[in-house]
Design goal:
By secondary structure, this protein is of the alpha+beta class. It is built from seven helices and ten strands. Helix 2 runs antiparallel to helix 3 and helix 5 runs antiparallel to helix 7.
Length: 268
């Protein structure tokens, strides 16, 4: 009886902690060896991870019944796969206190990732979750992952992908007002560099012309000890603009030991 009271208290404590997490779900697609990989991940966990109270990862892999030529499910299989996900979230959460952190889909496979305080009862809960999906082949495993390596290496987007994600979100937010969709905006771009020479080399090899330099301090920032750069240029914002304009800036700054800190539209 004492053991069950302890487990119940632990689950209540973990539930309280999970309530404090600002969940931020995102779906993105990238190419690996020429094949698409679709990832759905809770970005909000990155500010808390690794969560020391959940040092075990639970992974379930299932085969998509009828994948398309890209290894993705057809629309008619969306509903059962989402039901499977909901069932896993319910049973693993109830039995082990696990939280769902994301999934990825590629080459006819889908993998679900959870993090739990321990592995007690995980097999029982997985079997209970999958009982209604007898037509699917699946396997599961649980292992120690105190640093949340699976979360950060498998699910969490790279710096490059995050740039695209947040850029897309910003544009979608701006264009809730359709009248702004084809307008030209002045856009500020911010960078940091390790040395003056890195910054000078970057400015000599910009992938685009037409920039106006706003700030070019000769001394490093007192907090970061890095050399900053701020420029602006007009643009008609779109998802294509991110790939065709922002991404080359990001890659160029990285080439010269710098970091593209982001862009900000000037909206009057």
């Amino acid at each position: 009886m004492r053991r069950y009271l302890i487990v119940a208290f632990l689950h209540l404590s973990l539930f309280s902690q999970s309530q404090k997490i600002q969940h931020d779900w995102e779906n993105y697609v990238l190419a690996v060896d020429g094949k698409p990989v679709s990832v759905n991940v809770d970005l909000g966990l990155s500010s808390k991870a690794p969560i020391k109270e959940r040092p075990f990862v639970i992974i379930l892999r299932t085969k998509i019944k009828n994948p398309d030529t890209h290894g993705m499910p057809y629309p008619e299989e969306y509903a059962p796969l989402l039901s499977m996900e909901d069932s896993l979230i319910y049973h693993l959460g109830k039995e082990t206190g696990a939280i769902f952190t994301g999934r990825f889909t590629q080459r006819g496979l889908r993998e679900f990732y959870f993090y739990a305080p321990d592995t007690i009862g995980f097999e029982k809960s997985v079997f209970a979750a999958m009982a209604s999906f007898s037509g699917y082949e699946w396997l599961s495993q649980a292992k120690e992952d105190p640093k949340w390596d699976n979360f950060f290496t498998v699910l969490y987007p790279s710096e490059f992908e995050l740039l695209r994600i947040y850029g897309r979100r910003q544009i979608e937010l701006m264009f809730k007002d359709d009248a702004k969709r084809h307008q030209s905006f002045m856009v500020h771009h911010a960078f940091t560099f390790f040395s003056l020479k890195d910054r000078e080399d970057f400015l000599k090899n910009l992938p685009w012309t037409g920039f106006e330099i706003l700030s070019l301090p000769s001394l490093p920032d007192t907090k970061t000890n890095k050399f900053t750069l701020e420029m602006q240029r007009k643009a008609v914002l779109s998802l294509e603009w991110i790939d065709q304009f922002v991404v080359p800036l990001y890659k160029a700054s990285k080439r010269y030991n710098g970091k593209y800190e982001g862009w900000t539209p000037v909206v009057e």
